[in-house]
Protein: Beta-lactamase family protein
Amino acid sequence: MDTILAKYYNKAPRPFHAAALTAYNAQGDAICSSIQGTQTADPAGPAVTEDSIFWVASLTKIITAVAVMIVVERDLISLDDDVGKVVPELAAPEVLSGFDEDGKPIVNRTEKKLTLRHLLTHTSGFTYSVMSENLQKWAAYHGRNIDHTQGTYESITHPLIFEPGDDWRYGPGVDWAGRVVEVLSGKRLGEFIHENICGPLNLQSTTFHPETLPDFKKRKVEIALRTEDGSLTPTKEIFPLPTPDDLGGGSLYSTPREFTKFLWGVIRPESVDEIFRPQLPEAVRIRLNQLINMPEAQAMKWLFTTGDKVDFGLAVAITVGDVPDGRADGTVSWGGHTNTHFVSAFLVCWSKEG
Structure:
């Protein structure tokens, strides 16, 4: 892997400025660590290490799913309970079905209950505003800013775009699942995760609030954008620091060493099995596979395998059936906005042929 990373890093212009590939076995021993690049877009910047702090973006979702399973294990709620009884904003939510001839939104309250299973599998009806023209029109009509990168629950308080369980759309459902954890535990999500996940594993740099770490500025990996000439230029954080709310869908920071350590296991095997079990009803699974092959979904296509071999677990994509020269049946994975990726350490990662 060192050779592969170096080959791509040394291309002109550089395709990336920071890369880290780490892998642990089931006993928590490091079996691979390949690091390349600098923490800044400047090639003269400090070198990336396993302890450099990255914004992991949507890799946050798998940690939130684990937090959810902890409260489920404690019998505080089940995956199929009505979350509206816990979080008032989720009680009988509105579904946006269109607009009348005057441009007024047409909304109706759903009679279906909204559950943690819906929220964690992206079948709740929530979607990100950037992925829905109708939600953008709804927000404009009401004078609302529903850009989730504001880092607030208020920014993700808006109608569903379909009835819970009827379809699949990527969105802030996992953020709301994190809010359920907060209400049930009486703690902010970051505090709950630290006490129940990061603390026991001694993950000291995995946090929603990296600005509180004394050496954050020295270890922080910049986010960079590619300019028209192919060069990289630094950009500001996507979520504000400090973040107003601990959104469990995408505002966590971590290091390669710590996130990989998290992946090899923090909860009872049966809970891991539930997270990694294909969850979608057949009609919704077919719909998901149709969606990811549409032109408008190209921005997300890199997160999935090809063909019709995708299902979804609790906040993770699952490959169902071997993909030639690709992932093996049962592979669990997901990625984030800043090209962060994981493939589950519990399962076979790549095809048997490869």
User: Anything to note?
Assistant: Residues 345-354 have pLDDT under 50 and may be disordered. The longest strand covers residues 30-37. The CA atoms of residues 309 and 330 lie 10 Å apart. The domain at 67-185 is CATH 3.40.710.10 (Beta-lactamase).
